[in-house]
UniProtKB/TrEMBL annotation:
Source organism: Pedobacter rhizosphaerae
Keywords for the protein's UniProt record, in alphabetical order: DNA-binding, Transcription, Transcription regulation
One GO molecular-function entry: DNA-binding transcription factor activity
Name of this chain's protein: Transcriptional regulator, AraC family
SMART domains (alphabetical): HTH_ARAC (SM00342)
Sequence ranges assigned to domain HTH araC/xylS-type in this UniProt record: 187-285
Coiled coil: none
Matching SUPFAM superfamilies: Homeodomain-like
A Pfam family matched in the record: HTH_18
Key word Transcription regulation present: yes
UniProt key word Nucleotide-binding: no
Length: 288
């Protein structure tokens, strides 16, 4: 369902469904972009972010980006743009002391997030899917909608702590600035894997994209994420294959190629060892 809902506080929600779209724009507000089916390709500062249903993207205000959708079936997108004062107020309430909150002073710092892909799971998925279902049914209560948006920011804050701050602390560097810089480069590595998981990827490709040496990439990636880049790639391919088995009519041999595996037998072995069921049995169970 396509609609644009702009609230009186200038928070805005856009829902769309299309097979083909190309746009280039300067993002006017802090925006979280979701995709419920299909893929949306975004280019941000010459970085490609492929947004799938298992991830979402965070964009800062003022970011120039391009977006492309090219699909045989409709791609369902959903975005939330937060007015800066609403977001600043949230940030102040999360990080400020009780005395600061009672002072009710105007926040002075402009929020700045790591623009990247984040996992669309858990409470974030539950909250956003519930909000979309309500809006699709005609919800117009701004107080309730803003509560949903507040919980969206709470969920993002939790995800940010887990995906950025906690992983930063695992890195074995003394200086905080070094940890921040290395994690930013590791984020580029993850983005590259997420956006090219169905292609033939070399470690050198990932390392070059992240501006790290191969050995530096291997060591720091394992420190931050507790798995190797190869293990991360395999997990991602298996998760995407699972979704295709569940939601499409593609035959197994096509799904193997679509997610980047070259050998059907190794895919079947990895799928069974990971999910304790063969791909064929999983597909029959989900489509029965």
């Amino acid at each position: 369902m396509k609609y644009v809902k702009e609230l009186s506080n200038r928070n805005k929600i856009v829902s769309d469904s299309t097979c083909e779209a190309i746009s280039e724009q300067k993002n006017p507000a802090y925006t979280i972009k979701f995709v419920f089916s299909g893929t949306e390709e975004c280019m941000i500062h010459k970085r490609k972010l492929s947004i799938y249903p298992d991830s979402f993207a965070m964009l800062n205000a003022g970011t120039t980006y391009s977006s492309k959708i090219d699909s045989l079936t409709p791609v369902n997108t959903f975005s939330i743009s937060f007015e800066e004062k609403f977001l600043q107020d949230f940030q102040q309430n999360i990080s400020g002391s009780t005395a600061q909150l009672l002072d009710q002073k105007e926040p002075s710092l402009r929020p700045d997030f790591i623009e990247s892909l984040y996992p669309f799971t858990g409470n974030m998925r539950y909250n956003i899917m519930h909000l979309k279902n309500q809006l699709d049914r005609g919800l117009n209560d701004e107080m309730l909608i803003n509560e949903y948006l507040h919980h969206c920011l709470l969920n993002y804050h939790s995800i940010y702590n887990k995906e950025v701050l906690q992983k930063m602390e695992r890195l074995s560097f003394m200086k905080s600035k070094t940890k921040q810089e290395v994690l930013k480069r590791l984020t580029l590595a993850k983005e590259y894997i997420n956006s090219n998981y169905n292609q033939h990827i070399l470690l050198e490709n990932i390392a070059d994209h992240a501006c790290l040496s191969v050995n530096h990439l291997l060591r720091t990636f394992k420190e931050a994420y507790e798995i190797s880049p190869y293990q991360y790639l395999v997990q991602l391919r298996l998760a995407r294959a699972k979704k295709l088995l569940q939601n499409t009519t593609y035959p197994l041999h096509e799904i193997v190629g679509l997610v980047g595996f070259e050998c059907p037998s190794s895919f079947i072995r990895l799928f069974k060892s990971t999910f304790n069921i063969t791909p064929a049995k999983y597909k029959r169970m989900k489509t029965a």
